[in-house]
Amino acid sequence: MSSLNTPNMPLLELKSVSKTFGEVRALSGLDMSIAPGELITVVGPSGCGKSTLFNIVAGLEEPDYGGALHFEGRSCHAFELLGRVSFMPQRDLLLPWRTVIDNAILAIEVEGMPRAQARAMALKMLPEFGLAGFENQYPHQLSGGMRQRVALMRTFMFKRDLMLLDEPFGALDALTRTMMQRWLLDVWQKHRRTILFITHDVDEALFLGDRVLAMSARPGKIKLELPVSLPRPRRPELLTDPEFIRLKRILLEAIEEESMKSFQATEARALGA
Asked: What angle do CA 90, 15, 221 make, to 5 degrees?
């Protein structure tokens, strides 16, 4: 799917977006924009509304009245984004009765592509995703990292300008997670899709992102927008670079301040009860 954007126009823009669930205000006056080809990471304290933001951008939740969404330069409702973005939730959600290749083609097969054509396309992509030779394996035969590769391949094959990744590496061990981060950057730089990546990990946010958006405690909004001017391609030694450490300190201070606010608010509610 091709974008209608000019180079200076955001692919996605949210203005004063709020979301309330009963008495709980998850988001309040959130503003953000993503340019074509950017990799934006989002961090914040627990319960700050990261998943709510993800669901709105995915078209799964409609924000409260009063906010505005623009996609490809046009005003739209959140539900209009459903099917126009590709997204991967925290769990890989592979179907246990389908092989690697048949899990990878699921989205485009449902969309209407003939199965033989979809499988031929997937076979060409398997080496790029480190899955060559595993096309006939089933999910229970794969490691956690390989299952995530299949899920990401499925997301990439559902060709949309914007990809949403919700903590895709959160359940992996530290070594596998580091390898997956480097691999994702290689694939992203080749395909140059726009990515909104949600994470709890500050190092991951800085290592991957062109910009890091730090959210406030609930109700969530963007408290800090931190440009990451570190050179690409990114290598593991970057984590000990003085500039990386400086950016990490800024980000941690912002998140810790918001985490304290969240803790104090929870404690106050508990005492009030």
From this structure: 55
Q: In angstroms, rounded to a whole number, what is the distance separating the alpha carbons of residues 214 and 85?
A: 22
Count the neighbouring beta carbons within 10 Å of the beta carbon of residue 115.
Answer: 11
Decide: helix, strand or coil at residue 55: helix
Side-by-side strand order, sheet with 12-21: 24-34, 12-21, 68-71, 74-76
- CA dihedral in degrees (133, 186, 159, 174; nearest 10)? 70
Burial of 269 (0-12, 13-18, 19+ CB in 10 A): exposed
DSSP letters spanning 239-254: GGSHHHHHHHHHHHHH
Residue 152 in tokens: 């990401």
List domains and CATH numbers for the chain: 12-85+161-272 (3.40.50.300), 96-159 (no CATH)
Distance CA 36, CA 22 (A): 35
Tens of pLDDT along 172-209?
888 888 888 988 898 888 888 899 999 989 999 999 99
Angle at 223 between CA 76 and CA 49, to 5 degrees: 60
Phi/psi at 42 (5° precision): -125, 125
Amino acid at 12: L
**Is the predicted pLDDT of residue 263 greater than 60, yes or no?**
no
Any idea which residue has 């997204």 for tokens?
87
pLDDT of residue 269: 57
Collect all residues with Cβ–Cβ distance below 8 Å to 15 and sequence separation of at least 6. 31, 67, 68, 69, 70
Phi then psi dihedrals of residue 255, to 5 deg: -70, -40
Burial class (CB in 10 A: 0-12, 13-18, 19+), 75: exposed
